[in-house]
Amino acid sequence: MRLLFPLFIVAGCVMSVPALALDAPASPPADRPLKDFVTSVEKDGSITFRLFAPAAKAVSVALGSHDPMAMQRGDDGTWSVKTEVLKPDLYEYYFNIDGFRSIDTGTNAPKPQRQVNTSLILVPGSILDTRNVPHGDLRLVTLHSKALKSERQMYVYTPPGYTDSSKPLPVLYLYHGFGDTVGSWVAQGRAPQILDNLLAEKKIEPMIVVIPDTETDVPDAIAENTLGADLRKTFFPNNAIAADRELVEDLIPYMKKHYRVRDTGDGRAIAGLSQGGYQALVSGLSHLGTFGWVATFSGVSTTTVPNKAVDAALNEPAKINKALRNFTVTVGSKDQVVGKDVAGLKVTLEEKKIVHEYHEYPDLQHEMDVWRPSLVAFLEKIFKK
């Protein structure tokens, strides 16, 4: 252990500040291949989790909603455990290292979140794979939002063969959930792979998909400044109003100016998961005629987060039934996060005789195994002639 005194220059003066230098953490030995120390998917579809942490006292791994699995330490300082054979899917996991939650630093797939604490791993063999099919283009677009007075980013997916001279295409606006980022539907939702594969199988219509950032970070809607218990009172309603302004004043006009898009309600759809499902509800019902297709996947609803425009629309069911060609609501049967929200919305839609499709995924919770299939099913419905 060595005492170091780095030099800092402050207002023209040189200052020496003592610092304590510790030994660097151990690295895997260079005389063995790195694969011996990192997580891998086996040929049979199982996963071997590995973590090189020779100084750790106890390590476990939490895979999705399963109970944490204790890992065993090898003589070389590598902790490991092998799962059973898993169905093809994209899985979430994280390590518990002596009580500290950690992503897997031995892989390149962290889950996109505002506070990153989970990793992703793909067991191949499903529609989530990157297959040898024609691929669309995915652009990360930065634009100035006049509505929010800030620089914002969104992903724009265009289908294979799209050019500036293509015929106008319909657009789906797809929102992510609370705590996630603009990259969530891309990296975790696997939306580009799903779109490519469904288009190759001719199961969906060619379309452009816009993936905005659901969280606006306006002064009265910053999640990190809000107590968890108050999210439904302040953050969700304020953020939804701001995101709706951005959508109507910035995003839709941007797409009309820069892409070949259809400018009719039948040419626009809006969908989202969880918080993004609330956004789809707010924007979709606040602007009847702007969208012809609305979907909320495990979405927060006005049952717990009131919105005057949505409530007014729900009180005019004939207008909704005339404007929307499809209104989809999905949820996992064991969802403890938004179960009350979805149940309340379902009752309202049934009582008001608002035409909708409802699908409950058995034995699933608030998770991507609900949202990715929901997206697939919705994509197969929208923009059909």
Describe this structure in words.
With 385 residues, the chain is an alpha+beta fold. The protein has two domains: 34-123, Immunoglobulin-like; 137-379, Rossmann fold (3-Layer(aba) Sandwich). The chain contains eight helices and 21 strands. The strands form five sheets. Strands 14-15-17-16-18-19-20-21 form an eight-stranded mixed beta sheet, with helices on both faces. A hairpin with a 4-residue loop joins β9 and β10 (78-82). α3 (231-258) crosses α4 (275-286). The protein is globular.
Short description:
The protein is an alpha+beta fold.
Strand-helix topology:
Elements: E1 2-4, E2 7-10, E3 13-16, E4 19-21, E5 40-41, E6 47-52, E7 59-63, E8 69-70, E9 72-73, E10 78-82, E11 89-97, E12 100-102, E13 119-123, E14 137-145, E15 150-158, E16 171-175, H1 184-187, H2 191-200, E17 208-212, H3 231-258, E18 268-273, H4 275-286, E19 293-297, H5 308-314, H6 317-323, E20 326-332, H7 339-351, E21 357-361, H8 368-379
Parallel strand pairs: 16-17, 16-18, 18-19, 19-20, 20-21
Antiparallel strand pairs: 1-4, 2-3, 5-6, 6-10, 7-8, 7-11, 9-10, 11-12, 11-13, 14-15, 15-17
Helix pairs in contact: 2-8, 3-4, 4-5
Overall mean confidence score, pLDDT: 93
Query: Residue share in helices?
Result: 10-25%
CATH architecture of the largest domain: 3-Layer(aba) Sandwich
- The CATH top-level class label of the largest domain: Alpha Beta
Q: What coarse outline follows from CA principal-axis ratios?
A: globular
SSE order, one letter for each helix or strand: EEEEEEEEEEEEEEEEHHEHEHEHHEHEH
Per DSSP E runs of 2 or more residues, the count of β-strands stands at: 21
Strand content: 25-35%
Q: How many structurally independent domains?
A: 2
User: Main sheet?
Assistant: 8 strands, mixed
Number of helices: 8
By CATH, the topology of the largest domain is Rossmann fold
Q: Can you identify the CATH superfamily of the largest domain?
A: Alpha/Beta hydrolase fold, catalytic domain
